[in-house]
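pasting for the record
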Amino acid sequence: MKRNEFARCLKVTLAPMTVEALEGLIRERVSRKVVALLGLARRARKVASGAEAVESAMKRHSARLILSAVDASEGSVSKLRTLAAGVGIAWMQALGKEELGAALGGAPRACVAVTDPYFAGAVMSVLEKIPVEMETREAAWSGHRFGGQSGAL
């Protein structure tokens, strides 16, 4: 490929991008995709939102993925996190409380349970595209169980 051929084909100048800017773009696109998937899951009635509904879905073994808000207090999610770890349901943190609530068309939510395995798999595959530090990734994978259902993240 010739030098600057891509920019000439587009007839635009391409400015060099920093790693931080690229990471910010990836995070923004991933959060948009997660919001879109949660909206679809809500319309398909494959989501339980709120602490009691999430706990009920875990006890019925219908939850496939628990999404916790990144700004949720540890006290509000610790009981649900231990219950999810005991049952073997994947646990991930994504978005803020306001964003989770807006994705579901309601008030701010600290946690959401996705009950459909295909929606859960789609959300997990999108969230795995977020770049993280190597130490954080290794710590997350140390508690991950393979085969069948994922372990708590």
